[in-house]
């Protein structure tokens, strides 16, 4: 494990992992809750996730035009990756997908510099069932984007990866839940 990945694991374990009795967004109950935002929105987390996210995207050879996912969990990760890519020949544009279209103004579902025809990596903070990532996937595809992969900070290892792969999407994660709870 690289030093950066080891540091991210330590930050997530310290700041984001909670034990108790929780109902997850998926509706499932769990004795472990990962509030990744406590890490992804911290200064150290943003720096680590920006560079690690870009490193993982490169390792997959995905070559996207833009990155983004469902608000709110994907937002800091997306922006960290986009910001980190700024010095590259082809920087990655970051966008966010609303849970529902705006009821006013342009009525956009996708906000930011996403363009029709973009090759996109969907970003997720924590994958459990894959439902949030699939909602973002569907919105991007309906807007003319081409999904080339899904990148999560944490994979809870509860079927989300498999659900995304069953739909034909490649999935990568920086950390698996088993690495945070061992």
Structure description:
It is built from 7 helices and 8 strands. Helices cover 38% and strands 27% of the residues. By secondary structure, the protein is α/β, with parallel strands linked by helices. The strands form 2 sheets. Strands 5-4-3-6-7-8 form a 6-stranded mixed sheet. It has a two-stranded antiparallel ribbon with strand order 1-2. α1 packs across α3 and α3 packs across α4 (75-84). The model has no long low-confidence stretch (mean pLDDT 94). The radius of gyration is 15 Å and the shape is globular.
Gist?
With 182 residues, the chain is an alpha/beta fold. The chain contains 7 helices and 8 strands, in the order H-E-E-H-H-E-H-E-E-E-H-E-H-E-H. The chain has a single domain, classed as 3-Layer(aba) Sandwich (Rossmann fold).
Write the layout of secondary structure elements.
Blueprint: H1 3-16, E1 17-23, E2 29-34, H2 37-40, H3 43-60, E3 66-70, H4 75-84, E4 93-97, E5 110-111, E6 119-127, H5 131-142, E7 146-155, H6 160-166, E8 171-176, H7 177-181
Parallel strand pairs: 3-4, 3-6, 6-7, 7-8
Antiparallel strand pairs: 1-2, 4-5
Helix content: 25-40%
- Based on CA inertia axes, which overall geometry fits? globular
Q: What is the highest CATH level, the class?
A: Alpha Beta
Strand content: 25-35%
Q: Which architecture does the CATH hierarchy give at level 2?
A: 3-Layer(aba) Sandwich
Please work out how many helical segments DSSP would assign: 7
Order of helices and strands: HEEHHEHEEEHEHEH
Question: Total domains, how many?
Answer: 1
Q: Any idea what the radius of gyration is?
A: 15 Å
Major beta sheet, strand line-up:
5-4-3-6-7-8
Uncertain stretches: none
CATH domain fold name = Rossmann fold
Q: How many distinct beta strands?
A: 8
Structural category is: alpha/beta
**Span between termini:** 15 Å
> Biggest sheet, in brief?
6 strands, mixed
Question: What's the mean pLDDT score?
Answer: 94
């Amino acid at each position: 494990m690289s030093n950066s990945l080891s540091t991210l694991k330590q930050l997530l374990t310290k700041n984001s992992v909670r034990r108790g009795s929780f109902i997850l967004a998926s509706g499932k109950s769990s004795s472990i809750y990962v509030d990744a935002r406590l890490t992804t929105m911290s200064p150290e987390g943003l720096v680590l996730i920006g560079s690690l996210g870009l490193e993982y995207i490169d390792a997959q050879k995905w070559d996207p035009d833009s990155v983004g996912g469902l608000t709110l969990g994907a937002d800091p990760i997306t922006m960290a990756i986009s910001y980190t890519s700024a010095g590259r020949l082809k920087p990655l544009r970051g966008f966010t997908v609303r849970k529902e279209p705006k009821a006013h103004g342009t009525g956009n579902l996708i906000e930011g510099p996403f363009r029709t025809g973009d090759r996109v990596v969907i970003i997720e903070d924590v994958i459990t069932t894959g439902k949030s990532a699939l909602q973002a996937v569907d919105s991007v595809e309906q807007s003319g984007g081409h999904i080339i992969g899904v990148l999560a900070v944490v994979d809870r290892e509860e079927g989300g990866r498999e659900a995304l792969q069953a739909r034909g999407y490649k999935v990568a994660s920086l950390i698996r839940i088993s690495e945070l709870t061992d």
